[in-house]
Amino acid sequence: MARRLQLRLLTWDVKDTLLRPHQPMGEEYATKARAHGLEVEAAALEQAFWQVYRAQSLSFPNYGLSHGLTSRQWWLDVVLQTFHRAGVQDARAVAPIADQLYKDFSNPCTWQVLQGAEATLRECQKRGLRLAVVSNFDRRLEGILVGLGLREHFEFVLTSEAAGWPKPDPRIFREALRLAQVEPAAAAHVGDSYPLDYKGARAIGMHSFLVAGPEPLDPEVKDSIPQEHILPSLPHLLPALDHLESSPPQL
């Protein structure tokens, strides 16, 4: 008879898995600009933000730490470039907006806990699972989780800024396993990104679940993942864990 798999550790992504900003980035940026006397279309800022964010992440990955930047400098530059791309040429006018946005995104009030997140975390703990965070986030995350009442669920919070490596780098997952003193086969990761979360964790031998949300999955991604690893919402994790733990130990 096959030995029953027993998970000991669940690691969690945060943004768009457990929480997200109350407003889209473009609306948040436009609101702060308006408060400083600048009128900029939210749609233009939204488009500009994601273009700048992707370019900045490629040029200066993981907040530019290896280039001598701090995460705060990295984010202030993202804001300045976003407004420039959206048509605001006066960097001095944008500087106080950038500073305010950095502070606002440090504030738990800017974020919302996603439906089912807290109940799912509590239920996982009731099952005896140890929980931890593995997130591509900066030093503000700990305070945000405390303010939202989620920090108490986790043994530790490992950000890419603190670790020095962003997902899907295997070293950040290995560091989480080292901190927890758990073998990969006794751990699973939960996140919303196929390349960063799902594939990143499985590459080192962890189990993994992909939070798909309401939007249709890319057909290629969907075809490459067992159906029981796809979570339409967080409460679907609990039956998925039952299925995994009743299956023969394998990836």
TrEMBL record:
Cellular compartments per GO CC: nucleus
Q: Which GO terms describe its molecular function?
A: hydrolase activity
Instruction: Report the Pfam families cross-referenced here.
Output: Hydrolase
Q: Would the keyword NADP turn up in this protein's UniProt record?
A: no
| Top-rank taxon | Eukaryota
Q: Which InterPro entries match?
A: HAD-like_hydrolase_domain, HAD-like_sf, HAD-SF_hydro_IA, HAD-SF_hydro_IA_REG-2-like, HAD-SF_hydro_IA_REG-2-like_cap, HAD_sf
UniProtKB keywords: Hydrolase
Q: Which residues form a coiled coil?
A: none
Q: Which NCBIfam families match?
A: DREG-2, HAD-SF-IA-v1, HAD-SF-IA-v3
Family of the protein in this entry: Belongs to the HAD-like hydrolase superfamily.
Descriptive protein name: Haloacid dehalogenase-like hydrolase domain-containing protein 3
Q: What organism does this protein naturally occur in?
A: Camelus ferus
Its lineage reads:
Eukaryota, Metazoa, Chordata, Craniata, Vertebrata
Identify the coding gene: HDHD3
